[in-house]
Amino acid sequence: MNNPTGDKAPAAPTRHRNSGPGRLLIAVYGVFALAATARAAFQIGTKFAEAPLAYLLSAFAAGVYLLATVSLAMPGKRWFWISVGAVGLELVGVLTVGLFSLLDPAAFPSDTVWSLFGRGYGFVPLLLPVLGLWWLYLNRPGRVTQPTTERSSPPA
Amino acid sequence: MIVDGFFIVGAVVCLVSAVICVGAAVIRQPPNDITILSVAAVELILLVYGVAAIIRQAGGEAIAGEAWEFWGYLLTALCIPLAGFWWAILERSRWSNLVLGAVGVTVFVMLFRMEQIWDRVPL
User: Fold this and answer.
1) CA separation for the pair A131, A19 (Å, rounded)
2) Contacting residues of B for A31, CB less than 8 Å apart
3) 3-state SS string over chain B?
4) pLDDT given for residue A144 in this prediction
5) How far is A39 from chain B (nearest CA, A)?
6) Does residue A150 register a pLDDT over 80?
7) CB neighbours of A112 closer than 8 A, spacing ≥ 6?
8) CB-side exposure of B77: number of CA atoms within 13 Å?
9) Pick from B32, B88, B102: which is nearest to A28 by CB?
10) Interacting residues of B77 by C-beta distance below 8 A, sequence separation 6+
11) d(CA B111, CA B67)
């Protein structure tokens, strides 16, 4: 299966948000959506009364990651702006929660994905929105739009 | 301190797979037989681990942590190579090999958590 990829000739122009490096970005977002959702479901399902605020925050973070994953993968201008919103919200969330959990640990007795700037997850939650916004900026609508942006989805 | 043999084997398979896939991406290869088979090996070791865990638990071996949490991790981990394969194969660029590499890393972390649950080892 060593195809020297002659079909990949035009390197940059026909790119889309969910193409090239974007595929890795979306995959990592997907992993975080999964991890955050599972964590929030576990916390809320087993010990919600212990720290309602922190666990609601976990659920909120999970929702943001899910929205970011889906919107990054979808084509079109509307989804672009939805992903800007979701990734921006993620950045605000990780900075706010990170700062508050540092300054006032008592208010966050239990960890969320964003506690201490995502230290429990190797600080990836802090890095991810920065990379995400950069990637969205590089692929903003109207930059190198090709007439063939509406690629027919491959037979899955 | 006991570390489960299944965890060690699984961790090695995951890390080898991740190294192969990232290496293939570095030399600008699209997903090929080797990288895809390495991800299939990750799925296979998870299946073996799962079957062995059923047998061990049915045989009365105790889990230190919550059994349902262990199974939650295992069932979720089983989906990850499949999802990664699907996502990588839709666009066969070298970046897709990094997606396949992320499978190994993610499953490694999940195996690590499963080991913590099974043996309550603060590794």
Assistant:
1) 15
2) 80, 102, 106
3) CCCCHHHHHHHHHHHHHHHHHHHHHHCCCCCCHHHHHHHHHHHHHHHHHHHHHHHHHHCCCCCCCCHHHHHHHHHHHHHHHHHHHHHHHCCCCHHHHHHHHHHHHHHHHHHHHHHHHHHCCCC
4) 59
5) 11
6) no
7) A39, A54, A55, A57, A58, A61, A97, A101
8) 30
9) B102
10) B46, B106, B107, B110, B111, B114
11) 14
Provide the token pair at A61: 């973070």
Give the pLDDT score at B111.
Answer: 95
Assess contact for B59 and B121: CB atoms under 8 A: no
Tokens of B7: 């965890």
Closest CA to B29 of A3, A24, A152: A3
pLDDT in tens, B46-92: 999 999 999 999 998 888 888 898 999 999 999 999 999 999 999 99
The answer to whether residue B97 neighbours chain A at the CB level (below 8 Å) is: no
Amino acid making up residue B57: Q
A29, A86 contact by CB (below 8 A): no
Kindly state the average pLDDT of the residues A101-113.
79
CA distance A59 to A67: 12
Q: Which residue out of B26, B75, B90 would a mutagenesis test of the A interface target, given it has the greatest number of A Cβ atoms within 10 Å?
A: B90
Q: Which of A19-33, A139-153, B14-28 has the lowest mean pLDDT?
A: A139-153
pTM strictly above 0.95? no
Q: Which residue has the tokens 């989805």?
A: A153
Give the pLDDT confidence score for residue A49 in this predicted structure.
87
Tell me if ipTM is over 0.85: yes
